[in-house]
Fold this protein.
Amino acid sequence: MEFLKFFERFAIPNPSPMIYGSMVAIALVSIGIVVGITYFKKWGYLWREWFTTVDHKKIGIMYLISALLMLFRGGADAILMRAQLATPDGKLLDAQHYNEIFTTHGVVMIMFMAMPFIFAFMNLIVPLQIGARDVAFPRLNALSFWLFFAGAMLFNLSFVIGGSPDAGWTSYFPLAGNDFSESVGTNYYMLALQISGIGSLMTGINMMTTILKMRAPGMTLMKMPMFTWSSLIANVIIVFAFPVLTVALLMGTTDRLFGTHFFATSNGGMDMLWANFFWVWGHPEVYILILPAFGIYSEVISTFSRRNLYGYTSMVASMVLISLLSFLVWTHHFFTMGQGALTNSIFSITTMAIAVPTGVKIFNWLFTMWKGKIRFTTPMLYAVGFIPLFTIGGVTGVMLAMSAADYQYHNTMFLVAHFHNTIIPGVVFAMLAGLTYYWPKFFGFMLNEKIGKTTFWLLSVGFVLAFFPMYITGLDGQARRMYTYSAATGFGPLNLVSFVGAGLMAIAFLTIVYNVYYSFKNSPRNIGSDPWDARSLEWATHTPVPEYNFARLPQVSSSEAFWDSKKKGHQLFTGELKDIHMPNNSGVPFIMGIIFFIAGFSFVFALWVPAVIGLIGVFVCMALRSFEVDHGRHIHVKEIKEIEEKLGGAKNENRPHETSRV
Amino acid sequence: MKIDHTKPLEYSTDQNQLNILGFWIFLGAEIMLFATLFTTYFTLQGRTGNGPTPGEIFEITPVLIETFVLLTSSFTIGLAIHAMRLGRKKAMLTFFGITLLLGLGFLSTEILEFMTYYHEGATYQTSAFTAALMTTLGTHGGHVTLGLFWGLFIILQVKKRGLTPENANKAFIFSLYWHFLDVVWIFIFSFIYLKGMIM
Amino acid sequence: MKELFPAKQVMGFIFSLVLTVVALLVYFMDMSFTVGMTILLVTAFIQAFLQLVVFMHAGESKDGKSIYTVIYYGVIIALVTVFGSLLILIWDM
């Protein structure tokens, strides 16, 4: 059975009962899904409506589902870590498995949960907010999603085939080199992030072009809704930051697969160069995550304070400033790496400076709420909870920014507390607020308010219990990424509190699942298309939003076009109906995703023949696209009229406006 | 598809304008890609391990050939676009073809250059310096190679379907790509080769 | 025939050739490293700018402003990355 030796490379180097159990579960679920789809004869439907779609709304839904699934994968990692650390000398996980888990937790939460979550909202909302029919490059948009999906699937495969990466989500060399990371885990890291990163870069280009060129007549840049502004700026950052990661990952890959000496410890290699490039990308990355979150908060706070957003111009200016400054601070992630005081001083100053525009935004949100008619809906609760919690995270950031002081805080639990304190109230709360806020637009029913509020409170209390103790244990000396500690350190009690907090957070996330189920079964479906009495153009569409978004393109004259049309009688939709041009579906993005997955997997295991064939396949698809002639199709006026009739007429054509207030 | 006849063909539809802006933004991303490669090179250029230094392997002759060939090809693609705007399809295709031939000349010289390096003991795996050098030159050369195929595909499409708004758009975008590659080469020429030979 | 060789493009090409030759002089003549590097920096950036404006027609459409913003932004961040990294890893290490 010589040829069976070929398959030995796919074995897990460090198996455990949990891993074996997961393999079984994954196999069963995968088979179950395939059998189920076949049994219900849904392959045709899936191919036609989802796998080949270029519709931004459907692509947004696919990103959303992916993000929610990955949230649970990353969350499982988190619970395991907290359980292991709940008591001194915990025996749940050994060091190797702990390392694998904190690595995958970080990569999954940032790259495969938070990024797709924000891409989901950008895709779902931006074209509607600017009054467009789709993004600038619908086919490219589909490709972006399938590349993300291929990267995510490749990464998730690692812990059952070949072994997880275990060098941290930052994958520093020389630890990530072949000498110290002998399994293929780090190869998975390099290739999965490379593939999904290419998708992200494409989205950056796509969204920038869309926002710059496809706004409705009358919508100047300074009349755009704030979520669209935040998306524009975030995508600018994506365009300039991701290429750095692309090169760094390439060099990391060639070091591991082809024996180059970029980051090696011999023949002139410089391991610190990896850390440098990782953070040149990595710091802008966190602003990519937070800016769209800020955009969601702007929409939510303004709607539920029943007031225009305060300080529009300074909101825009602060984001522009943040985008530039975000590229000037990266060294604060490695103040202790050995560079001189001059460097550390410069980057301390720039890091502290970037807190200023963020502070401006916080004040603008508070002023928006001041003297507003506040409705404490679930999305508003998240926004209101965000402000104090994020501010605490922000000020601990200023503490960390002082490079001399950072020698004490670096890589302790204090740091872990800080970044979770900004990401969870900052990004995760915003995503949940956005999910609740936009749910009725895309699914036709509201999520239950009582359950939603329960989720918010459980999550907030759980978050504080889980992470605030880490500030204290970090200052007391508990290091980051350590799989255990002794009772003599005294870290025990607070780590137990953390574990309780994590448990509450887990329950909170489960209540979201329950909410979806409960609301699907019980929520009324007659909520109209503007259930929150909102302010911007995405709410001027029907629910469900027709394929072409708007039967007539809206005429805009203020930064709150929909609100003004409701309250001041401004006509949004005038003129004759015309045939609408729409892009055709295509199977090529899905197929390219598969090809990238195969190529990526082959590179991970140094299977050169399929790897090269895969690469050639990518270029063949590009060549076919070059020669392709596809002029799309037209939706004719007759069909538009039928759809509009069915959905209840266009908004604001001299009809009494229907809202159901919550 | 609405065609605006007051604009040059490559700008004449909405999608055309989107494509051109989108490609400029892509070039912005490519600036950062090459900036990262240059950073790698400048950081690692002195770290030669057991292998040769830049001064020991760089030679002026192939560099001169590559530079003048690529610069001229940038000129000829500009002439091709100009001919396209005049509606002179045959002239456009001729200049396009010359551009690609010059590009092929550039690549051949570069391949010979790499082969010489290998024989002199400067391989991909030799040192940090050689890795950075070959990855930077190789990424640029890889872009040129992709360009040769892309340009050929455009020539074939113009020949088969004529000068349509779509083909004109593709040809113009290709010219942006080709000019950009020459801009990158200017920096390679100045700060890798020349700098390496005067240090 | 003459219409196929527009003056702007021809002048641009000749100017590029001149800039390249000036850069080459740095190699062929024996200059100090600082002087040589300064000349290379100047010629490289001028030639790059020339390509951008004359050959690539960066400003010719109504998206010209966006295009220039993108390019300037990219160049600034590129310079920050290059020189910042050199400072961190070499000059101040």
About this structure: Residues 9-198 of chain B form a domain with the Four Helix Bundle (Hemerythrin (Met), subunit A) fold (CATH 1.20.120.80). Chain B has a mean pLDDT of 96. The two ends of chain B are 57 Å apart (CA to CA). The helical segments of chain B are 14-44, 54-57, 60-85, 89-119, 128-161, 165-198.
